[in-house]
Amino acid sequence: MLGWVITCHDEHAQDMLDKLEARFGPLPQCRAVNYWRGLSTNMLSRMMCDALHETDTGDGVIFLTDKSGAAPYRSAALLSHKHENCEVISGINYALLEAMYPQRETLTSAEFRNTLVDMQVPGVSSLWHQQQKNPPFVLLHDLYKN
Predict the structure, then answer these.
(1) Active site residues
(2) Domain that holds residue 27
(3) Does 12 reside within a domain?
(4) N or C: which end of the chain has fewer CB within 10 A?
(5) Phi, psi of 61 (to 5 degrees)
């Protein structure tokens, strides 16, 4: 089963997790990380790293963030590059999480990412999809090395 780390500004991550648990019961391998005003990005990264390790049982982890490019998204992006089967999704909301919850058990992390983005919900994207639009920067002298 895919682990979920829901990470949003203020109390929104915990609110979504509470609503999901009210609907589905206790959610194994799910953690909420709230990004409060004044919280350092270092502390946020530590909290997200802990959540990643608490939710990953080997099938992968999906970071579900509220805003693309904001601190929770950036922290998730950095962590995802260090771990296999990690995906970062931005623009999430409760209705989307509720709809996708049953698919945690059947999809791979890449399939989950693609299914979510293919729903074409306004504002929803993934780190992977963003990277396809904007390929990594390459120095010209690296291109011409032989």
Answers:
(1) 9
(2) 3-131
(3) yes
(4) C
(5) -135, 140
